Amino acid sequence: MIACTPEPPYYAVIFTSLRSDVEQDYATTAERMLELAREHPGFLGVESARGADGLGITVSYWASEEAIGAWREQAEHRVAQLRGRKEWYRAFRTRVALVEREYGMEGRSLSPSP
């Protein structure tokens, strides 16, 4: 699903990762982190994809750098980060970017016209 974000400016946190072979608690924890993020002040939305090769990209959108910092330090999120480093990821990179503009197209039907 494409995140519905407000008019820029806002921030994007881009988390790119390579998964390990460890599956224990990963899906449950990922779901919990999404639930917590949605409740966190300043959270605007998220988009995520993972390929068969284990490469994943998750982009979360935030109202401010302060909101990003507070999320980074959220207690349950900190525990998940530690487990990610130790168990779930072979490698990862986090990037923070200011979104200055956006443009696009709304969804449309691909059905043939009569």
Report on this model:
- With 114 residues, the chain is of the alpha+beta class.
- Helix content is 32%, strand content 32%.
- The protein contains three helices and four strands, in the order E-H-E-E-H-H-E.
- It has a four-stranded antiparallel β-sheet.
- The protein is globular.
| Strand proportion | 25-35%
- Main sheet attributes: strand count, strand direction, barrel closure: 4 strands, antiparallel
Helical stretch tally: 3
Give the helix proportion (percent range). 25-40%
Taken in chain order, the helices and strands follow as: EHEEHHE
Radius of gyration: 16 Å
The strand count comes to: 4
* Derived structural class: alpha+beta
Query: Unreliable runs, pLDDT <50, ≥5 residues?
Result: none
What is the topology, as strand order, of the major beta sheet?
A: 2-3-1-4
Determine the mean pLDDT. Answer: 94
- Principal-axes geometry comes out as globular
Termini separation (Å)? Answer: 28 Å
Key attributes of the depicted protein:
4 strands; 3 helices; alpha+beta; four-stranded antiparallel beta sheet; 32% helix
In short:
This protein has 114 residues and is of the alpha+beta class. The chain has three helices and four strands. The chain has a four-stranded antiparallel sheet with strand order 2-3-1-4.
Topology record:
Blueprint: E1 10-19, H1 26-39, E2 43-50, E3 55-62, H2 65-72, H3 75-88, E4 89-99
Antiparallel strand pairs: 1-3, 1-4, 2-3
